[in-house]
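Notes from hallway chat w/ T.B., transcribed later so I don't forget. T.B. wanted the structure written out for a chain they're using in a teaching module, and asked if we could keep both sequence and structure tokens in one place. Agreed to drop them here.
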Amino acid sequence: MAQNLDYSEVPQKDVEKIKPMEMEEKEEQVELKPKMTLLNGVTVIVGSIIGSGIFVSPSGVLAQTGSVNMSLVVWITSGVFSMIGAYCYAELGCMIKKTGADYAYIMVTFGKFLAFIRLWVECMIVRPCSQAIVALTFSIYATKPFFPECDPPDEAVRILAAICICILTFVNCWEVKWATFVQDIFTYAKLLALFIIIATGFVQLGNGKVENFTWDDTESDVTKIALSFYSGLFAYNGWNYLNFVIEELQDPVKNLPRAIAISCILVTVVYVMTNVAFYTTLSVPEVLGSEAVAVTFAERLYGNFAFMIPVFVAMSTFGGVNGILLTSSRLF
């Protein structure tokens, strides 16, 4: 006689096997793994801050301040302002440990609508424009050694910028370790370039080249002094980028404030000493008349090796593009 079976019921022994499997599936969550060390965090911030700004912005600050000494005060103050903002951001990052930074903080504080508006502006306007500008700057400096007598062709500049973005996008999509490795290498390269300039400045100071460090012609209009901070703070932009990848940072409560402290102090010291080096050689009119102060500085002192500075600027901006892409993919 056939035995009647109710197939809607599962034997108890099979239920006991299924329950642990269901619990394991619930416990497994899709999330970013913390692979970034403190050193990686420092290189992300330093690599994102130091782009083309320090090689170009000195003329913008000097134009509004009028004197060398006042411009140095603006550079120091801009660094302090950036550090204060970075520490406020670090406090938010330690309280809200979610990838996305601005989007995550606004979502928790003000709700979904304002968070979406902020995310939309960042994705559609801010980040694409930033990537395009820095990539174009990279391609201009990368092609400059091949066109010493004239400007590089626009077509070549645009194609190289597009190739730069495509390569770094692939690297960031493929593996986080690759992206952080690229960030580390190019951060070291840009710091090396700035340390060469700073060392040259110390030699010049040792030779008594201090005639440009005066308060002469200091701007008395407060509004113009305020405008000088626009160029100064532009050069420090990027101090908030580590918060975008906080889920991937090991022990973020300890390492986030440490990385911000190390990075902001390092960048401020490097920026101020780089400006001091520039002014040991270049006068106020020369700085104001230069589109790229670092290149003019190199042409005056390095002779046949002046081509190194455009190469280092290209490497600096290449690392800047990588930093923007690394954080852009974690906006939400």
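Follow-up for T.B.: Residues 105 and 121 are 15 Å apart (CA to CA). Might be a good example for the class.
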